[in-house]
């Protein structure tokens, strides 16, 4: 597997380009995101398939915690930063194209669909942006704790999901910021990640600091469709395969990537079914991992590791102590 080193920077997010299957963006931070600056790397897989080439690296004054590619503009990415900014860059340009400011705390999740951009923050809000005009269109305030992930539905561009330290999964119509369209207590712990199934418009998965991954049928949120067990620590990222509805991958603070493959995950008939373990892949990267799937090829990429359960809450406390004394 090709390896790219980021000396002095710790990886937070890696994403394949939506328009070029061999291009990646990697968001990193100094000192595990506790202090210092951040660097965005634009990478390209060499034609031999064995080498990752650095196209460009761009510096920011605070840590970079997530990255997302524009679906309509070639080579354009947005990053969530520790100073509350959403920074838009284009590969080949030294200066940011846009700097969007409205959050009052760290931006830990960004997602871009068509002309709109979502950002989720430790200030407990989600914001919807028009990045071309640098306008914040709406602010969504339904969570009571840190919002870790917000992501558009791939089936309905006016719908998105968010998950939070308050344990809830919430579904939103982007035109109605006052309250969510639906909500469920997804975990008895912080919920760190969620992902929509590309195959089934009513299916979504959540991952929590309780070490569980759960699947939900949006038509009946009374109980999870499935629960994946086996991770010994918090699950930082969950993702459905874009190629098969019966494949789910999760990355955990226990230094593993787990891939559940097969008929155990049945979107239509698996209500209440409990599933254990799956395929376990030990990781040799430095700290916890992030996972992204190339939408065109079956390649998996990991991020560097961070420590254990409730790491993000610890980071918030330490960052505030370093910032304010």
UniProtKB/TrEMBL annotation:
Gene3D superfamilies: YVTN repeat-like/Quinoprotein amine dehydrogenase (2.130.10.10)
GO biological process terms held by the UniProt record: protein import into peroxisome matrix
GO molecular function per UniProt: peroxisome matrix targeting signal-2 binding
Membrane-spanning residues: none
Annotated GO CC locations: cytosol; peroxisomal matrix
Keyword set, alphabetical order: Cytoplasm, Peroxisome, Protein transport, Receptor, Repeat, Transport, WD repeat
Cellular compartments annotated: Cytoplasm, Cytosol; Peroxisome matrix
Top-level taxon in the UniProt lineage: Eukaryota
InterPro entries, sorted: PEX7, WD40/YVTN_repeat-like_dom_sf, WD40_repeat_CS, WD40_repeat_dom_sf, WD40_rpt
WD repeats: 100-139, 140-172, 184-219
Family designation: Belongs to the WD repeat peroxin-7 family.
Protein name: Peroxin-7
Biological source species: Eumeta variegata
Gene that encodes it: PEX7
